Amino acid sequence: MYQQSTATPRELFGVLAAGAIVLLVVHTLGRFVYTPLLPYLIGDGQLTAPEGAAIATWNYFGYLVGAMLAIRWHRVGHIRVLLPAFLTIHVITTLFVTQTDNLTAISASRWLNGVANGVVFVQAPALILEWLVLRNRSSMSGLVYIGVGLGLLVSSGLVTGSADWLEGAARWWPVALASIPLAIWGGRRLYRLEVPDQAPDNDGRVVTTTPLIDRASIPLFLSYGGAGLGYILPMTFLPLLAKLQLEPGHWLLDGTWLIVALFTIPAAWMWNKLGTKLGDIPALKLNFLIQLVGVLAAVLWPGAMGLILCAALVGSTFLGTVLLTQRLGRALHPHQGPRLSAAMVALYGFTQMVGPWLTKQWLDAGGTLLSAFGIGVGALAFGLIFVFFVPRPEAWHARTIQTD
């Protein structure tokens, strides 16, 4: 039996910082840096808008594949091998895109980078959550996502700060060079975490047969799928939409992504706190509502006002959706741990892949990027509805005990 233990504030900070750094590397320097880069790559003539959407789709498809791999290899022993391996793949694939203008090569590299992102984005927070649970600190789990918020600011600075002296494929160099030391430090710190290969129940027994899909998790899965499709459109195309709507030289051409970054930085702390104070389900309802208003603002008020509201409201909420949903999932099924997290991220990844693909089809058919944001509005409304069908974990477990 693995006994619960305590952790010093220094240990807690070190573990959460390592997780935050790892997510910064794969999720912002890997995925989201593409958003502020895309208008520059199109302006350089390396890509067209439909090609840029296609590359984004390949990256998100890789993310889905990575999450599926994490479902299969979800135990702590697997994570200790795969986490450093895929951090290495992230660095290699990012270095590779600095060397080519070939569309097929870029797409393949971004797909593999997405695989690395999917595996690490599942495994690092799941490993840390298990470590925190054993130390009775699970309420702090959401703080690991602060790395994504900080990473958005870092990615914005790396792209805009080098915009005047780099061109085409070379625009990836700052991201690649920044990833190397951060991946090494974060990966080594997480590799040394003391976590049993499988978490025991309260009686010290290892449970492996609890269901992954049931009446409690289905509405949560559906809600999370709507969130993935709803947020990915502004998080992929908001700077490009600004370029289409605003005059050259407008501060929002780079400013939209900066606003997203600034509002994302405190988001993990804020929603972690609100979930603890209000309860994760009420906080998730509020989260969806604010995010829905943000995407709707871009549709209803084209131009600077809509762009600012979308950037601020989506930036301040999307991480909250992730951390609240992941924590709810583990509370409903405490013995699933990393496997449940992987399954949820796989669904999230699938809907994120669908978003850029639908946008490409819409643009190829003559639609506008602004009208494509309506897809996100509908998806977030869908997600919000299903949050109301998610049972409270304590009520669900009480019902389960009564029926046993």
How would you describe what is shown here?
By secondary structure, this protein is mainly alpha-helical. It has one domain: Growth Hormone, Chain: A. 75% of the residues lie in helices and 0% in strands. The chain has 16 helices and no strands. It has helices at 9-32, 34-43, 49-72, 76-96, 103-133, 146-161, 173-191, 217-245, 252-264, 267-278, 280-300, 304-315, 318-332, 338-364, 369-387, 393-403. Helix 14 (338-364) runs antiparallel to helix 15. The longest helix is centred in the N-terminal third of the chain and has 31 residues, at 103-133. The protein starts with 8 loop residues before the first helix and ends with a helix. Residues 199-207 have low confidence and may be disordered.
Query: Span between N and C termini?
Result: 25 Å
What is the assigned CATH homologous superfamily? MFS general substrate transporter like domains
Strand content range: under 5%
CATH topology grouping = Growth Hormone, Chain: A
What average pLDDT do the residues reach?
A: 86
CATH first level = Mainly Alpha
Overall structural class, as computed from helix and strand content, comes to: mainly alpha
Secondary structure: helix percent: over 70%
Written as H for each helix and E for each strand, in order along the chain, the element string is: HHHHHHHHHHHHHHHH
Low-confidence stretches: 199-207
Round the Cα radius of gyration to an integer and report it: 20 Å
Q: What number of domains?
A: 1
- Secondary structure tally: strands: 0
Specify the biggest β-sheet: none
Q: If helices are DSSP runs of H or I spanning 4 or more residues, what is the number of helices?
A: 16
GO cellular component, one term: plasma membrane
Main location: membrane
InterPro entries: MFS_4, MFS_trans_sf, Sugar_transporter_CS
Protein name: YbfB/YjiJ family MFS transporter
